[in-house]
Design brief:
With 388 residues, this protein is α/β, with parallel strands linked by helices. Helix content is 43%, strand content 15%. The chain is globular, with a radius of gyration of 21 Å. The N terminus is likely disordered. Pyridoxal-5'-phosphate binds next to helix 4.
């Protein structure tokens, strides 16, 4: 059953130093209870009522005011916004709506596993470009690959391009503004919609991506880009609340589907999110999380650099931000055996690709390890590299 998602025991190839999405060192219990209490006081009389299908209007209005500055994206209207149960539910719902099981999609590989599974469910076929690194943390798209994209768009009925533009999961690569402009123009020429999944842009430790415009901003008439972001990576994944910004006509249409689908977000959680924006909780938590994550990143890199592994660069490419490292272990089987001997948990991980093969890579999650254990964990990794 290697195709199943979230079957961690059998289908994930991950060097799991610890499991979890993000750093959890910020204690939220008290904040959560306070938000819940305030939300219930404000909305208690709505309990057991359904909201309209655009979901909590107050939260929509709040996001419209708050998100542009927080995420550094252009202003948008409430009519362009829909609140979602995290980005995840909307990968499925939007693609169902765009692809209908009969149109094709293009992705950049390696690609966020959930996105691949979801496109597989909803498309006719998936095309992909194998992204290599330009040496500076950005995707290198060769002339041949540009031609290939044009050929794919001309020959097939591609309606969707899925991309994580900043610190993509799992490759950590970003896309430059110049390539964004080129890609957007190609997509416009062939009426391909870009799904811009951007939860990692803010984790830009070296400011290399600062100032690069989103696809959404570059698409001045806002016809070709769906911008998606979430409260998961700046706050708490368990809230399961995210949002999409898209063309108001399509938002109106698709909200109808949300009404009768499981993607409709839980009203109680939306109240809490509204309160958390009001009480500046995301701002506070993100500040804490950014600094915790950046410190771990710096310590992880420093411990690797100080190691006696002769040429650590042959395994790891240096990253500018984000939570993970994408490491070339050359020989996956050998690496797994040695890593286990060194006390690392290695979980099979085969779901980051669909047309290409990234068998020699693993994703290392340094962000989820408590700071005090990071050095020990990194040393286990170093020991493995030294014996490989
Ligand atoms: C690229 C990307 N998009 C979306 C998500 C999930 O977002 P959400 O929690 O809002 O569903 C993840 C989580 O790992 C991710 O890596």
């Amino acid at each position: 059953m290697t195709e199943l998602h979230n079957n961690y025991d059998s289908d994930r190839r991950m060097l799991s130093l610890w499991w979890g999405y993000t750093d959890e060192s910020y204690v939220i219990d008290n904040e959560l209870l306070q938000s819940l209490e305030r939300a219930l006081k404000k909305y208690w009389y709505w309990i057991l009522q359904y909201e309209n299908c655009y979901w909590l209007q107050n939260l929509r209005e709040k996001i419209v005011k708050w998100a542009p500055e927080f995420y550094k994206i252009p202003q948008f209207s409430t009519e362009s916004l829909i609140i979602t149960s995290g980005i995840t539910a909307w990968l499925d719902l939007v693609w169902r709506n765009i692809l209908w099981g009969k149109y094709d999609a293009l992705i950049i590989e390696p690609c966020y596993d959930t996105a691949i599974r979801s496109i597989q469910q909803n498309s006719n076929q998936i095309f992909s470009i194998n992204a290599s690194d330009n040496g500076d943390g950005f995707i290198k798209i060769t002339t041949d690959q540009w031609n290939e994209i044009r050929i794919i768009f001309s020959k097939w009925t591609v309606k969707l391009l899925y991309i994580v533009p900043n610190y993509s999961n799992p490759s950590w690569l970003s896309i430059s503004q110049e390539d964004k402009i080129k890609l957007l123009s190609l997509c416009k020429e062939f009426s391909v919609t870009i799904f811009e999944d951007d939860p990692y842009a803010l984790y830009d430790y070296s400011w290399k991506n600062n100032g690069i415009k989103t696809f959404y901003e570059l698409d001045t008439n806002h016809e070709s880009v769906i911008y998606a972001n979430s409260f998961s990576k700046i706050g708490f994944p368990w809230l399961r609340i995210g949002f999409l910004v898209w063309n108001p006509q399509v938002i109106a249409k698709i909200s109808e589907i949300q009404k009768y689908s499981i993607s409709s977000p839980n009203l109680l959680t939306q109240w809490i999110v509204e309160d958390m924006i009001d009480a500046w909780i995301f701002t506070k938590v993100f500040k804490h999380r950014f600094s915790a994550m950046k410190n771990k990143y710096i310590n992880f890199i420093a411990t690797l650099n100080e190691s006696e592994v002769a040429s650590i660069n042959q395994y790891i490419s240096w990253i500018n931000g984000w939570f993970y490292a994408w490491i070339n272990v050359k020989n996956w089987t050998k690496f797994t055996d040695l890593a286990r001997e060194n006390g690392l948990v290695v979980i099979p991980w085969k779901i980051y690709w669909c047309n290409y093969n990234f068998e020699e890579y693993i994703r290392v999650t340094f962000s989820q390890i408590p700071s005090k254990d990071l050095e020990i964990a990194t040393n286990k990794l170093i020991r493995t590299f030294m014996t490989i």
